[in-house]
Amino acid sequence: MINYQVKELAYYPGCTLKNGAAELEKSFLFVCDALDFHLEELPKWNCCGTVFSLQQDVLVYHLASVRNLIRAKEASKKAIVAPCSICYNTLKQVLDFLRNNPDSLNKINEFMFEEKTKFSLGDVDVLDVIGFFRDVIGYERFVKSAKHRLNGMRIAVYYGCLHSRPRNAASCEIEMPNAIEQLLGQLDAICTEYPMKNECCGSYLRVKDPTIPLERVRRIVKSASLNGAELIATLCPLCYDNIKNLQKRLEREGSGFKILPVVYLSQILAMCLGAPKEIYNPKSEPVPAFSS
After folding, report:
1. What number is the average pLDDT over the span 70-83?
2. Which of 14, 85, 108, 208 could pair with 162 as two cysteines, CB 3.0-4.6 Å apart?
3. Domain end call among 130, 152, 181
4. Dist CA 10 CA 39 (whole Å)
5. pTM for this one?
6. How many Cα neighbours within 13 Å face the side chain of 210?
């Protein structure tokens, strides 16, 4: 367990949660409030930069993430909680890069000379949903606070890439992770094991060549379905969007493809903690498993 006080944590929504992933933000914040972790949104946050640049000598690509770390330091926060998988992975990798390249941090601080605050190593850490729920709140608190159980709901947890790779940003096992299953199992879910749980969904290749993520989604959903899942639970807004929308295209192809509902982990937890239906099962995207 990590002993952070609530006031030491900053909620970083990132761009997606304020736009296309409203279900994730609403359900995540409900879960936090229900467990008495009332997170303050990071003031004056900006885009994380979207992806971590592998060009280590081009430091300008890291500025967006460093500015967010500075905002957290100015707010006297010790850690940023980033529910978006992409934001978490980008912020975490930039932080790890700075730890291993202190000279680059000095150059970045010099470049951002208009910033009143300079970032120093050890000022702020970054947490994803897994690390926050497991290591800060603790699974026992979820179980004790649950108002409803999952009663054998068959859930395929889909991790995707960004919580287990690369190793320096991983919050769970690289091969066959089960951190989320440990929580859902205590809430009486049946978590189906399937080999595609941490395979890439195709990510941004959907823009360049949609056939690649289309085939990835086909394999992911088919694997989960064959192993008995009735819905897929994910953490990542991009994975959620790819799996949800590309399934519709696969169904239209008329090849007998069977759609599996996809939800955010936080929607399932919000339901267990007594959220109103509009938080975890909006009328615009109803989930049959949530209606029983």
Report:
1. 98
2. 85
3. 130
4. 6
5. 0.95
6. 9
